[in-house]
Structure formats: C-alpha cells, structure tokens
Specification:
Elements (H helix, E strand, L loop, with lengths): L2 H17 L1 H14 L15 H17 L5 H25 L4 H32 L3 H25 L1 H41 L10 H6 L7 E8 L8 E6 L3 E8 L2 E8 L3 E8 L3 E9 L5 E9 L3 H10 L7
Helix pairs in contact: 1-2, 1-4, 1-5, 1-6, 1-7, 2-3, 2-6, 4-5, 5-6, 5-7, 6-7
Length: 325
C-alpha cells in the first residue's frame, strides 16, 4: 500500500478506536482471517490471530452491555481514556512497521491523538446525554447502537477502501473539531453540576440571584420577581450559553452575554403553551413550549445547578397554571 493509502486507512481506524476499540480490532481481525480484504501490511495479520480475536471478542461483549446502561457507560469510558488511544497507537505500529521510521512515529502520534479526540467527544457527549436528556435511557441505547454501527462501517471501509474511508473520516473529524468548543463549554458545566450537587446538600440558594447592571438595564431598570442563573438550550441565538432566567407577572426573560454585549430573549406568558419541571440527578430543568413566529410551536430548555433548587421550584410553581409534567 502507498503512504497515502496507509495514512487514509489509519484516520478512520483511529476515529473508530476512540469510540469502540474492540469492534475495531474484531472487524480488522475477522476480515483478514476470512479473506475479505487483501493487500494489508503483513504486520496487521497479528490482529487475526485466535488469542487476539478471543480477548477482543470478550471485551466487546462486556462493552456492548456496559455501553447501554446509564452511568455504567460513563465509568467504562473513564477507564478507557488511556486504553483507546494506546490501542489505536498499537494498531498504527502494526500498520506503519516496515515503512520510513519518521512515518512510523508520525503515524503513531497522529493515531493516538485522533483516537483521544474521538474518545473525549464520545465520553463527554454520553455523559451530557445521561445527565440532561429528557429520554436518558432511550437516548443512551440508541446512541450506543449508532456508535457501534458507525465504528463497524468506518473500520471495514478503512481496510477495504482506504481513500474513500479516509475522506469520510476527515469530514467527521472536522465536524468533531467544529463542535469541540461547545462540547468543552458543556463539559465545564457538567463538572460544575457535580460540585454544586454536593454543595446543594449543605446549602441552597433561596433568594433571587443578583442580575448584572447591564442586564437590569435591558429589563427597563425593573427588578423581576424571580431571577436564577442557568444555561439555555435551543434558545434562539443563545443555545448553550450561560445567563439569567427572570420572571415577572406576564413575561419570561433570558439575559446573557454574547460578543461582550448583553442580549435579551423573552416571551410573553400568553405565548406559553406548556411548561415542565424535571428533576435530574445533577441538575434541574424547566422545559417550555411556546408559540413563536407564525404561531409555530417551539421548545426551549433551561438547565439549573442543584443548589438553585428552591428558586427553580418557586419558578415552576409560578407556572403551575400551565399543565406540568
């Protein structure tokens, strides 16, 4: 295989290893053993040996079930933070052994790094789904099955059609990197939620939080009845941003900063169709369905840290005239 083909093959294999190392090894090993692919580097045949297939098969079965159990999958991902990148690097050694030593080193470094990016993206996303998704168990199992299918697809195409698979994997990697800033922001919020979950056991915030002066000005210099810091989801122009959810007798406001300037999102109470208050392990969530432009129904969610629970419950009670879930 040419250098371009080897590099193209390792890109999707590295991405796949970061999501599920054992399916990756099994797919390569079985494909070689069954004669489905030809022309691979001779050193890769070690993946088709019986001991490697048996061990990777057992570990795949363990991951298959662990990956579909809420929070068990997070523990499993944590354990594999080093295992997956190291596994990808070992596969890269098998691929590039016999080539230029410089290419071997570059291939191993790139493979481990790409696998770590893939693993980190998967692990953080799965944790966020477990903590904040309204359909945790269903979402968990669905995402896991999709991941398994994607890994199988990427790995087989990588060894069968390396140039095509490499192009697809490059697009996927760029997509992951594009969403990395958002994933990082949510991961910081996740760590905060764990800390404030324990803090909330000792002390809870019961009085309104203080709005920044610039936010008060946007509300017409009027202090609202309830103010709680939170993070918005699906809020137009403010998805994933931290801010303050405020309530008065007829309107709901979300004030936040964007590009160093205060911004405002609001809806009138009579536009709200329904609201739902949901208590999760690490966060509380208020979900609001409202009529937007052209009377089209839209949905927004506001995520609160646990030490704000008394304030969130007050806000939920203010909206109690709207059917609650």
């Amino acid at each position: 295989m040419s250098t371009l083909e080897l590099l193209s093959m390792m890109l999707p294999i590295s991405l796949a290893s970061g999501m599920n190392l054992y399916i990756t090894v099994l797919t390569i090993g079985i494909s070689i053993r069954a004669g489905w692919v030809e022309g691979l580097p001779e050193e890769m045949k070690v993946l088709s040996t019986l001991p490697v297939l048996i061990i990777s098969g057992i570990l795949f079965v363990l991951q298959f079930f662990a990956d579909k159990i809420q929070f068990v999958d997070n523990i499993w991902d944590s354990i594999h933070t080093l295992i997956r990148p190291i596994g990808a690097a070992l596969i890269a050694i098998a691929v590039f052994t016999g080539t230029n030593p410089a290419l071997l080193i570059i291939g191993v470094l790139l493979s481990g790094s790409i696998s770590l990016v893939s693993h980190s993206s998967k692990a953080t996303t799965r944790m966020l789904i477990n903590v904040m998704s309204p359909f945790e168990s269903f979402s968990n199992k669905t995402i896991s099955v999709v991941e398994d299918g994607l890994v199988l697809f990427l790995t087989y195409f990588a060894i069968k059609y390396p140039l095509i698979a490499g192009t697809l994997a490059l697009c996927l990697l760029l997509l992951i990197l594009f969403f990395t800033p958002r994933i990082v922001r949510w991961s910081f919020f996740l760590f905060k939620s764990i800390f404030y979950r324990f803090k909330g056991v000792i002390k809870k915030i019961e009085n309104n939080e203080t709005l920044p002066q610039s936010h008060i000005i946007m509300l017409g210099n009027k202090l609202p009845e309830i103010t709680i810091s939170c993070r918005g989801q699906n809020v137009k122009g403010a998805h994933g941003r931290d801010g303050y959810l405020s309530y008065d007798s007829d309107r709901l406001f979300f004030t936040y900063n964007k590009w160093f300037k205060p911004r405002l999102w609001h809806i009138n109470r009579d536009r709200i169709v329904s609201s739902y208050f949901k208590q999760h392990l690490l966060v509380d969530i208020i979900e609001i369905i409202y009529r937007g432009e052209k009377n089209k129904e839209r949905k927004v969610r506001f995520v609160f840290l646990k030490d704000r629970s008394p304030l969130v419950e007050r806000l939920a009670s203010k909206l109690s005239s709207i059917p609650a879930k």
